[in-house]
């Protein structure tokens, strides 16, 4: 297993694996309502078994090179994460996502972690396009897309059903030549 420092504040990026389901579930419990405002992880990891199943799904994606999940630890406490929700290596396209519990917001953790993932996807895996899909209501996540130098490609109106409410979904992206410049 690797550990990647995200700066001098004790923040680290590490793979998040099924054997860490208890820690992941405890993290979801701490941030369930905050995280669940915009993403389905909070609802998908409703108990220890479903948390393990979610992480196993990403382990399976890693094994087939179609996705990956990483945790963000701050002072050895899991506080959030970033992931490749989708990786389409033959097409050179990946979708990055993120989440944080409330205690970890405002520190630039997601921006720093997403930079690591995007750089790896472009430089090591040859991705040409990295996408960021976000609810139009999720201003902090949109701000991260901007900080990452992404371009807003458009809005998919009433595209996503989350907790019984239709949401507009913004599509942001960065292309390999833009990232490298």
UniProtKB/TrEMBL annotation:
Which InterPro entries does the record cross-reference, listed alphabetically?
Acyl_CoA_acyltransferase, GNAT_dom, Ribosomal_N-acetyltransferase
Which is an annotated Pfam family here? Acetyltransf_3
Q: Which organism is it from?
A: Lentzea indica
State the superkingdom: Bacteria
**Cited PANTHER family:** ACETYLTRANSFERASE (PTHR43441:SF10), RIBOSOMAL-PROTEIN-SERINE ACETYLTRANSFERASE (PTHR43441)
Query: What's the protein name?
Result: GNAT family N-acetyltransferase
Where is each N-acetyltransferase domain found?
11-178
- Gene3D superfamilies per record: 3.40.630.30
